[in-house]
């Protein structure tokens, strides 16, 4: 069977980004990481979602974003630092940026 390409938006599917000037009042948790003047919060169960996709034999996983590739790679590095996702660091098919 042919592979299926799944494209995920880094900023929408995996994490929420908010400026440092005023942390969001709707979130009652600490940010998962800070990068370039922004607070970043992973979506709930993001690692389970990605692990499921990456383990599927037909899925080729790619990401797209409106930020530059340099910054997108930094974000993906943070995503794949999760102990659940470290084994899959080399399994991303493509990164599409602006």
Topology readout:
Elements: E1 4-9, H1 10-14, E2 15-19, E3 33-35, E4 38-42, H2 46-55, E5 59-64, H3 69-79, E6 92-96
Parallel strand pairs: 1-5, 5-6
Antiparallel strand pairs: 2-4, 3-4
Q: What key attributes describe this structure?
A:
98 residues, alpha/beta, globular
Spatial separation of the terminal alpha carbons: 31 Å
Helix count? 3
Shape: globular
Order of helices and strands: EHEEEHEHE
How would you sum up the major sheet?
3 strands, parallel
Briefly note the structural class of the backbone: alpha/beta
Strand content: 25-35%
Low-confidence stretches: none
Measured as a percent range, the helix fraction is 25-40%
Q: Would you count the extended β strands for me? A: 6
Rg, nearest Å: 14 Å
Average pLDDT confidence is 87
Adjacency order of strands in the biggest sheet: 1-5-6
Account of the protein in words:
The chain is of the alpha/beta class and 98 residues long. Helix content is 27%, strand content 31%. It has three helices and six strands. The chain has helices at residues 10-14, 46-55, 69-79; strands at 4-9, 15-19, 33-35, 38-42, 59-64, 92-96. The strands form two sheets. The protein has a three-stranded parallel beta sheet. A three-stranded antiparallel beta sheet has the order 2-4-3. The longest helix has 11 residues, at 69-79. The N and C termini lie far apart (31 Å). 9% of the residues are buried. The mean pLDDT is 87.
Short description:
By secondary structure, the chain is α/β, with parallel strands linked by helices. 27% of the residues lie in helices and 31% in strands.
